[in-house]
From TrEMBL:
This is Hexosyltransferase. GO terms for biological process: protein O-linked glycosylation. Keywords: Glycoprotein, Glycosyltransferase, Golgi apparatus, Membrane, Signal-anchor, Transferase, Transmembrane, Transmembrane helix. GO terms for cellular component: Golgi membrane. The chain crosses the membrane at residues 7-25. InterPro entries: Glyco_trans_31. It is found in: Golgi apparatus membrane. It is an enzyme of class 2 (transferase). Belongs to the glycosyltransferase 31 family. GO terms for molecular function: hexosyltransferase activity. Its main location: Golgi. Its EC number is 2.4.1.-. It is a single-pass type II membrane protein.
Length: 328
């Protein structure tokens, strides 16, 4: 495993304060794309080697989905897909009312990604919820913690098909608050200074300990999994939408891991994409997110994501983000 780590170089650049770049470097041999998308711009984007075979086709059917037109045809800044579970209606409501509020932030769209329940009544509630909010994407795999990787692929798939006019894709859990006003400013800065670069990049939280931690879990639960790194952590990460299309296509060729983030790390490595570490823009420890957020000031408010341990914290942190945005 140590050798594996040598295939990637850890290069530290200070492009601007607090951004660190990690470049994945593996050597692809052949340019080919045997996927279903005919768009020639996409064709040149996924690099496969001779031994790559389709081993993970994502053939699930939609049970519920919003109108194909919710993203419209104009430029959007962001499409967020929230991985959530069926019973978390309150959490979804909170998200709709706060960071994802489309009245406040017309250039973003949000959908919730779910699998199916065994119970008819529960699935039917989702049909009703979607009729009102037009933001539920439900596929026919079983909704369970062990299927999170499938859920993420479902998110990338939906974005590829129905929202490719959004500049960035955000994969996010339902217990993370987004500081939307600051995130939109971050996008503007990236567009202005690093447009081409960001097209091939994704952004997230990186913890060097996580590789060893996951290996421990695999050992203790006696799972048949080969964990390879590096990978970012799962709760919230940003991907250029151009790249999220390639993540989806590449997922056909990579065997799922039970860990969603390990899996996306593997896709990223195969795609030789840039990972940009944004650790300093996160409140990643939910035990003190609230405390930390309360200390933010007009001059120090560049935090984009806060993990929350309760819906109370979620609301309070959002209120703080919102009040700071009004101080301009
Ligand atoms: C893709 O198609 C080419 C020919 O068009 C073929 O040689 C290659 O083996 C295929 N690759 C996969 C992964 O199916
Ligand atoms: C939308 O984005 C494309 C690509 O960045 C750009 O060429 C076009 O001018 C934009 N359109 C609008 C209406 O902003
Ligand atoms: C979004 O914000 C607007 C303006 O503050 C508010 O009127 C509306 O109720 C909010 N939408 C949701 C779904 O809460
Ligand atoms: C999803 O998870 C359930 C329960 O863990 C499992 O039985 C099922 O095989 C998984 N996969 C799919 C595609 O539903």
């Amino acid at each position: 495993m140590l050798k594996k780590n040598k295939i990637f170089n850890l290069i530290i650049l200070t492009l601007f304060a607090n951004l660190i770049f990690i470049f994945f470097a593996s050597k692809p041999q052949l340019l080919a794309d045997n996927g279903t998308n005919k768009n020639s711009d996409d064709q040149k984007q996924i690099l496969l080697s001779k031994k790559d075979q389709i081993i993970n086709p994502h053939n699930y059917k939609y049970i519920v989905k919003p109108s194909n037109k919710i993203c419209g045809s104009g430029n959007l800044s962001l499409i967020a897909f929230v991985t959530t579970s069926i019973k978390k209606f309150q959490e979804r409501q909170l998200i709709r009312q706060t960071w994802a509020n489309q009245t406040l932030f017309p250039s973003i769209r949000t959908v919730f990604i779910l699998g199916k329940s065994k119970y008819y009544k529960i699935n039917n509630d989702l049909v009703k919820e979607n009729a009102i909010y037009q933001d539920i994407v439900q596929e026919d795999f079983i909704d369970s913690y062990t299927n999170l990787t499938i859920k993420t692929i479902a998110g990338f798939k939906w974005v590829s098909k129905y929202c490719s006019n959004a500049r960035y894709t955000l994969k996010i859990d339902d217990n993370v608050v987004v500081n939307t006003p600051e995130l939109l400013k971050f996008f503007d800065r990236m567009e202005k200074n690093h447009k081409q670069f960001t097209k091939h990049s994704y952004f997230g939280y990186y913890d060097p300990e996580s590789l060893a931690d996951r290996k421990k879990i695999v050992l203790s639960k006696n799972l048949k999994e080969k964990i390879q790194g590096p990978f970012h952590l799962s709760p919230a990460y940003l991907v250029s939408t151009d790249l999220s299309k390639r993540f989806y296509k590449m997922s056909f060729y990579v065997k799922p891991s039970i860990f969603e983030d390990v899996y996306v790390g593997m896709l990223a490595q195969k795609l030789r994409t840039n990972f940009i570490m944004l650790n300093k823009r996160y409140f990643h420890n939910w035990d003190n997110s609230l405390q930390q957020a309360m200390k933010l000031t007009k001059k120090n408010k560049r935090y984009y994501f806060a993990l929350c341990k309760s819906t109370q914290d979620f609301k309070a942190i959002w209120n703080k983000f919102e009040s700071l945005s009004l101080l301009n």
